[in-house]
Structure formats: C-alpha cells, structure tokens
Amino acid sequence: MKLRLLSLYPDQMNIYADRGNILFLQHRCEWRGIQFEVTRCGPGESFNPDDFDLLYMGGGQDRDQKAVAKDLNQTKQEAMKVAKEDGAAILAVCGGYQLLGESYELEGETIEGLGLVDLKTVREPGPRLIGPVAIEVNLDGNPNALADGEAKVLAGFENHGGRTRLGPDTAPLGKVIHGHGNNGQDGFEGVRQDNLIGTYLHGPLLPKNAWLADHLIATALEHHHGERPELEPLEDSLEDAAHQAALTAARNG
Ligand code: GLN
Predict the structure, then answer these.
(1) What is the reported pTM?
(2) Strand ranges, E, within 123-162
C-alpha cells in the first residue's frame, strides 16, 4: 500500500512548524509497512489531482497568505476542486483553512480564497484568539449532528486574528469544549465536508491527536486503493501523554 501526499506551499505556509504533521503521518505509515511519498507544490506549480490521496496546507501569517492566495487560485484551484470531489483527504490548518473558504477580509483588503467550502473569514476588531483549545469531534457520524455516535477529542493550540463563519449548510469539525474556535462566539471549530477538514488547531496537531492522523491515513489509502484498510494499532504511549498534556493545558485555559 502507498499513501501519496501533496504538501502545498511547504515554505510559505508553515507557521509553528505545521509541516511536522507530515513527518508524523510518514512515521505512522512506515511503522506499518505502508509506503509514503511526499510531493512539494509551491508557487507557480500545478499538480494532477489523480496523483494524490492527501493534500496538506499549513498556517501562515497574513502576509504569507497574501503572497500565496493569488497563486493558489491561478495554478491550483481547479485541481483542488477535482481532488475534493474525487474524495481525496484534505487537511488545512489555520491560514490554510481560511484560504479554503470564499475570502479573508482584513484592513480594507480582501484575500480571495479557493471557494472549496462555504465559509468566510473577517479580521474583526478585538484581540487575537490565542490559547490552548479542545474540541469534541465525531468523524463517523453526521457532521450536522455532532452529538451522535462516539465523540473524540482534539486538543491543541490556536492563534488567529481572523474570525471564521460557516455558511448555513456547512458543518463544523467540532464543538468547542475549551478555547475560542472559529470566531469565539458560536461554539464551533473548523469545518468538515466529505473528506475535507479545516481547523485552527496548530503546530503538532497530529502528534497530539494520533487518532486523527490514523483517520487521515485510512481515508487517503481508501482513496488510492478503493478499500478502507484496518490499520494496525501502534504503541502510542508518548502520543497519549502529549494528548493528555494538551488537554490539561486547555482545561486550565
Ligand atoms: N493570519 C491568519 C490570522 O491571523 C492565520 C494565522 C495563522 O495561521 N496562525 O487569522
């Protein structure tokens, strides 16, 4: 089996070393004997959506987002749409998450997003939304009924000035237990649509939440091989400790 990952703007969209998430995916695949291939896709480069099972974009400061947004729409928009419709897994973090939506408005300027999902981000007056965060997520159930089925917890860290609001038919990734989430008001965090996930949880999101890494690996392998694999469990004591530490930090606010 093989997982083919596309890393979008690895040099520009990598605040808090978000690309560490890719190393974590790689190790979890290799420990299970699954081949893992990373392709970098930067400014001016296009890609063929048939060649990838998992697309990843990290976070960035406003100026990084301005620098890539035009290029993203000019050279990658169509391929991103096809990849999403075809069921490839997509994970976008913070600045990358904001660019999946319609637009990001700040200081009288509008950065055009990819329009892959119905959401908008606005840099409203008020402090940045910063701190440890924990959310409750149910990836197996209906995203519009987050309370159904078995809920799992994602714990991490957020730092964003933009406030994101989802369109009426767009489902969040989860419910905020501690922290701010999309806008500090409606109690939701991130977005989820088919196999696309956008979230404000930064930095070592996947090492702190190994279950999400495995969910992405299984989804990507299903995309490539047509069948969802049963992933061999790994020895996760360090990952569990990292999750607990992030959760405790979120509880203590
Ligand atoms: N620049 C965006 C904001 O402040 C995203 C920040 C980030 O990726 N950390 O809202």
Answers:
(1) 0.96
(2) 129-137, 152-160
